[in-house]
Please model this.
Amino acid sequence: MRSATVPGPSRSWSPPASEADGRELAVYVHWPFCVSKCPYCDFNSHVRESIDEAGWREALIADLRHEAALTAGASVVSIFFGGGTPSLMDAATTAAIIDAIAALWPVAPGVEITLEANPTSVEAARFAGFARAGVNRVSLGLQALDDASLQMLGRPHDVAQGLAALDVAQANFGRVSFDLIYTRPGQTLASWQAELQRALGFGTEHLSLYQLTIEPKTRFASLHASGKLLLPDEEASADLFELTREMTAAAGLPAYEVSNHARAGAESRHNLAYWTYADYVGVGPGAHGRRRHAATVRTMKPEGWLAGVRAAGHGIAEETALDAPTRGQEALLMGLRLTDGIDPGRFEARTGVALDEAIDPQSLAELRGLGLVAPAGGNLRLTAAGAPLLNAILARLVAG
Amino acid sequence: MTAELSRIRNFSIIAHIDHGKSTLADRLIQQTGGLQAREMTEQVLDNMDIERERGITIKSQTVRLDYKASDGLDYVLNLMDTPGHVDFAYEVSRSLAACEGALLVVDASQGVEAQTLANVYQSIEHDHEIVPVINKIDLPAAEPERVKAQIEEVIGLDTANAVLASAKSGIGIPEVLEAIVKYIPAPKGDRDAPLKAMLVDSWYDPYLGVVILVRVIDGVLRKGQQITMMQAGTQHLVDRVGVFRPKIEIVGDLGPGEVGFITAQIKEVAQTNVGDTITETKRPTAQPLPGFKEVQPVVFCGLFPTDAADFEKLRESLGKLRLNDASFSFEMETSAALGFGFRCGFLGLLHLEIVQERLTREYDLDLITTAPSVVYKIFKNDGSMIELHNPADMPDPVYIEHIEEPWIEAVIYCPDEYLGSILKLCQDRRGIQKNLTSVAGRAQVTYELPLNEVVFDFYDRLKSISRGYASFDYHQTGYREGDLVRMTILVNGELVDALSMVVHRSQSEARGRHMCERMKDLIPRHLFKIPIQAAIGGRVIARETIAAMRKDVTAKCYGGDISRKRKLLDKQKEGKKRMRQYGSVDIPQEAFIAALRMGDEG
Model:
């Protein structure tokens, strides 16, 4: 299967300055395959017995080419391989895609290239290859630090394997992040405190700490509906959220977004692109993109997407122009997730709408009165008390 | 068509829900050839969906059956199906007055159920001959002998002529028919006397107009006759005379003892009064029938469309319903919170529920119902009196000299074991005990009670504390002065007008506390804490607090799928639209309905 040339060990790009017009672009590449489906996951992931990797590589590159033609002048600040399980991808495929992107767009210096990986021994063994392909950041789906929980979450690895993979990752990549899922069934404040304390001791500079959410149409959703899966209640979940914020801040990795924590400078640039409403292209099955005031979504089913690319040169299922109020809404939804909140200047530059016009002034006054929203440094942002209430706040704050 | 008096039998069927009344009626119709098997739909007599689903009968119905008895003679059997709830007690009494006897259907394994008793006693009061039918005898758990003994002991009814049957399997049906002929007396009447007929019930039929169910007492009712409704004082020309078999059959006339229907170009049911006496205009009867009462709504509530745009649709739908149900009334009402709606009057809580359900189901309307209330008489200082249908209209107490409220006399039958808690319930509801007797383990207790204590949730409470074994019947006895106050509910300091209610001062604190607790459960958490207060005038009598929301945030942002988050936001906003805003608090519409349904009070 492996047909592409193995890329050299170190790579850097320095695009001609004239090609970039300063607009930042993030590129998301979706690899939809997993060895097995986790019971909490509602992402677009599929289990297939065999994959025509060369065919997929060609198709992804074709899909990218389509996007490049429509985003000329922007420079790529981030590439993100998500899934699915992109760490199951051949490193040569990764390399080929990275090369293709570098050929299609100017690439900003210090570009962030992230790959999502499962911390199994099989995948860890291939980390060096991914590093050689140009990946400089890995996001590991560690998910929990006790075996019973990993089993409950249906993960294909145990804690020992996971930590071994973390070591390999930290040795191979300049930047590493890992995910943990908390507010699990039966989880107490004390047990999470111990688990998170341990997690903070690995020296990792970026942690994504997600509260377990029951997504519709997952196995957890049916278990939950039938009362076989009980989650901590609102009070307990609020306590766990607060504890998480306190502990990460104390450890020097404060929350910079609802669920993301990093040492200063170690934030995920890719996700920041989403949260600051920068343009991003999304290729591969089910990937979403925002470019030049339009929303794109690719065909969900892998085979359908593949067929689409072969027939039309791209996998877009739907492309919708977003009007100004919608763009304002979207930028608010994303921007207020950030601890620093929304910079009004950037907001207006990226949406074409003034921040004041996107929000309901009376609600803003009320929310400020309640101490849930407070401007800081010119930014519109939630207070520490407001952060866990984002959805309810948005329901009031978003104009219209 | 006129049958000989001695060959007529008019009877009703008394049965507890599920004991097989409808199935037995169906079998009797089938056996006598009223309908072919293929025409039998489940439970022929209950026409409305609501009737079938709830197993209750709302409108009286009749079927005329031709039966050749074992004595070789042809008989006419009129089966009268009567409504089965105290809300329709008056209609029931008129139907019963049109019969000479009844079949008492009792489940052979379950025995006599309490709710049946009230109907049995009513039937006995009308001097009916009662034939017990022990039904479902083919079930393994059937104990016909025990049930017979129970009927003798509890009701004091001779069971020598009881029939053992299984309506479902068709066992004992011929025996039931024979027993009707043999034990139920023939009606009496004088064919040559001036026409005297009772208006038993009426309903609107889209093809025929208003159909009037009649029982002829004396004289003959025929097509072309000019008739006078003696109570209403109106005259009409009879243009159709017929019977139900159960299909409509037009006949020439109806003689004494007969049951059938007429039409007389009447457009609205409101022009006909149940219990009225129909006579011939040119040769009227001297005396109208006894027992006539004008039907007056006794329970009032506001009905508001959930979507303000549906107001006209609600008005039209109420108008259509009223075509067929003269016993409810409606007039426009406005509420600061709920917008435009109607103040509606009903015979009782079940009637209210039925109308509400028909509006929802048949007319596809989403409704908000306010607290049920009775009609208070407010005597003002200036000597004037106003009838208060809506607590929100209560004048300032300084202008009120005194307030009177309607009282009822209630008769409750129950097994002795529940007597204690039932007496307590009546005492708690300001009841005054009038009478208490107990025979063979069954008590009959008579109480005077204020009606507003009954419309609230009395019936539900009674059912729950007696596990369904108590039966309850009431009639209004007039107005009495009471120490009544208007209790208001404040949510986050804002008055919620739809939740205002008139209560007795002695009950106000308990009621207020309960309302606050209910609202606490029904209003979702907000971003701030919300005090809920019950107050009389400016004085707070109960208070609860809804804690502020602590967490509502989506953990993950789904890659770049912002559309999904936008959908979530749209859903939240949509949900907010279905709420009513009081100041900065959103109250879900379900909260209004649930808060007022106080059935699960501790």
Summary: Chain B touches chain A at residues 525-528, 549-563, 565-566, 568-569, 572-573, 576, 584 (CB under 8 Å). Chain B has a mean pLDDT of 86. Chain B has 13 helices and 33 strands. The longest strand of chain B covers residues 400-415.
